[in-house]
Structures are given as C-alpha cells and as structure tokens.
C-alpha cells in the first residue's frame, strides 16, 4: 500500500526520525507521533469510507491540519483520531451521492493487509474489515458509522467520540445503540470458525486449480451468489449469478481457460477473509475475489474488477483483453 511503503513516511520533507547529534524539535516529535499513529488513523478512515485511496487521502489531510495547528494536543492519539474521523465523515457524505450513481453493485476497495494491529481487539478488527461487515456499515448514516467504528471496533470512550463527531455524549450513546441494532440485525446467525473457514477456502482453490467441478459444487451453498463490482469499467457479469449449479458452471467455464492462457489465481486474504488475486500472464491484477463462508459452505463470492479500486494492489491488467483471450481459449477447447 502506497502510504505504508517501507522506509518512507508519506510526509513530504519529513522522516519522523530526528537527526543524530542535535535536540529533537517539536515538529519532529509531532511527526514521530503521527507516524506511530498512521496505521490506526488509516484503519479508522478505511472502515468509515470503504476506500483505500480515500482513507489514504484522509490520513494525509489529517497530517496537514496537525502540522498547521499552533498548539500541541495533550493526547496525539485523541486529537489525530478526531481529525481523521471528521474528515472521513465529510468525505463519506459526498461519496454517498457518487455511490447512488455507481454502475452496478458497489463493493469496498479490497484491503489485503490491515496496517493496524491490536491483540486485545483482534476479533473486532478482523470482523469489522470484512466485505460483509463493510456492506452492513453502508446502511448506517455517516455519524452512526463513525460512532460505531470508534466505539465497537477501536474501543474509544464516549467523551473522545463526542469530541470527534461534534455531538454530546448522550447523543453519541444513542447513535451507538442504533448502529449496533442495525449491524446485529444484518449479521449471520452463525459465524464460521477461522480454521475451518481457511481449510474450506483451501479446498475450494485447490479444486479451482484442478478443474474439479464436483469438488467446486460441494464447497458452495445451495443459494450461493457470485457478484462483481466493475463500476462499468471492466467486464460486467449482469446482476450476478445465483445458485450452486449456475455459479459452478460459470467458474468451470471461465477459470480453466484463464489458467491455460497463463493467468494465475493467487490465494490471499482479502479484507480479513479468504480470497484471491487473479493476475494475467504478465502479473497484472485482473480482479480480487473475497469469500463469505458460513455453516461449512461458501455463501457468497464477491469480486472487484473496477480498475480504479485495484491500483493499490498492483499494476492493473486490461480485463477486457483477458476476458477476450479466455473466451477464445474456451471456444478452442470446445472444438
């Protein structure tokens, strides 16, 4: 991810590390605190926005505002978290209009690695970044979403949340209750065990590589859905494919010839869940797949092929050309 490239801070003209042999200046200390908190700030912004690029921009804007502030905050964490939250709320409000006009289904930008880790909140962090959870968060108002993320995911106290969103503590508690009610209503009744989930995903991708149609079908729920987010800028799969037989047919038709023309299916965690990155023969990113697994079966396969949402993953392939070559290989096999 661009903002977390090794050896750089992403702050023009600042390394965050004081030069040896001279006292540390206040702005250098502030830059150092910012760099330590950057993973947290990005993780807050991403969960509010569902966009890697917008979250990175929100973090950078947070630094600019912090650097321009004439005073040093008592708590850098509270201050910077509040600033990035306010920025993210404003961006989300304008983004809602664009998403209403979006071509086809809208999914969050795939996140391969969450830069923020906290062993005490690992379960909340992993759950909150999944595609399913982020799509549930889309149902909330921007304020509800921000309050839920700060409270339920990162464990902020209501005084800090109130300062961040510009509402009273009582109002924030009400927002938190409403948000939790909406989220709980949309969650699946049974969560998959992480080890069992990963094992099932492994069997699924092994079957994919072997072209084992029966094993593929067995791994899918009867009402499984395969849905793609192309944004009108990559091949669009109508409104999606539904049911184990139809989804198996689509996968068995497209994936084997894709592999024969040099395509690669690279299993990889996507938004904290089992998934894969599809690459063309040159290594360009065609799309990502994310799997929703519950009750021992794959319930949904969500693919992101909109090139605007993939450039942080790597160089993006020409998905139309890849599909054309894949279909040509399939027709050749049929004859």
From TrEMBL:
Transcription listed as a keyword: yes
All copies of domain RNA polymerase sigma factor 70 region 4 type, residue ranges: 132-183
Coiled-coil zones: none
Keywords, comma-separated and alphabetical: Sigma factor, Transcription, Transcription regulation
All copies of domain RNA polymerase sigma-70 region, residue ranges: 34-96
Disordered as annotated region, ranges: 1-26
SUPFAM superfamilies reported for this sequence: NTF2-like, Sigma2 domain of RNA polymerase sigma factors, Sigma3 and sigma4 domains of RNA polymerase sigma factors
Family membership: Belongs to the sigma-70 factor family. ECF subfamily.
PANTHER family: ECF RNA POLYMERASE SIGMA FACTOR SIGJ, SIGMA 19 FACTOR
Self-association and partners: Interacts transiently with the RNA polymerase catalytic core formed by RpoA, RpoB, RpoC and RpoZ (2 alpha, 1 beta, 1 beta' and 1 omega subunit) to form the RNA polymerase holoenzyme that can initiate transcription.
UniProt name for this protein: RNA polymerase sigma-70 factor
Species name: Streptodolium elevatio
Lineage, broadest ranks: Bacteria, Bacillati, Actinomycetota, Actinomycetes, Kitasatosporales
């Amino acid at each position: 991810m661009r903002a977390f490239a090794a050896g750089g801070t992403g702050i023009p003209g600042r390394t965050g590390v004081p030069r040896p042999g001279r006292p540390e200046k206040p702005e250098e200390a502030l830059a150092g605190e910012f760099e330590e908190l950057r993973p947290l700030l990005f993780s807050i912004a991403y969960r509010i926005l569902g966009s890697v690029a917008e979250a990175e921009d929100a973090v950078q804007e947070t630094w600019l505002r912090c650097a321009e502030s004439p005073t040093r905050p008592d708590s850098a964490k509270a201050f910077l978290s509040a600033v990035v939250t306010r920025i993210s709320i404003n961006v989300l409000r304008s983004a809602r209009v664009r998403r209403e006009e979006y071509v086809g289904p809208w999914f969050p930008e795939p996140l391969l690695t969450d830069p923020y880790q906290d062993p005490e909140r690992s379960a909340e962090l992993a759950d909150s970044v999944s595609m399913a959870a982020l799509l549930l968060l889309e149902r909330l108002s921007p304020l509800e979403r921000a309050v839920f993320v700060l409270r339920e995911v990162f464990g902020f106290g209501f005084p800090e949340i109130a300062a961040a969103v510009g509402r009273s503590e009582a109002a924030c508690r009400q927002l938190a209750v409403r948000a939790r009610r909406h989220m709980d209503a949309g969650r699946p009744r049974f969560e998959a065990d992480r080890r069992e989930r990963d094992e099932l995903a492994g069997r699924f991708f092994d079957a994919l590589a072997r072209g084992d149609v029966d094993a593929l079908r067995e791994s899918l729920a009867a009402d499984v859905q395969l849905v793609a987010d192309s944004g009108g800028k990559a091949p669009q799969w109508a409104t999606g494919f539904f049911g184990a037989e139809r989804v198996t047919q689509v996968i068995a038709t497209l994936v084997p010839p894709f592999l024969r023309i040099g395509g690669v299916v690279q299993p990889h965690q996507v938004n904290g869940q089992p998934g894969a990155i599809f690459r063309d023969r040159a290594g360009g990113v065609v799309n990502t797949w994310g799997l929703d697994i519950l009750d021992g079966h794959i319930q949904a396969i969500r693919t992101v092929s909109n090139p605007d949402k993939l450039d942080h993953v790597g160089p993006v392939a020409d998905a139309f050309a890849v599909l054309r070559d894949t279909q040509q290989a399939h027709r050749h096999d049929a004859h």
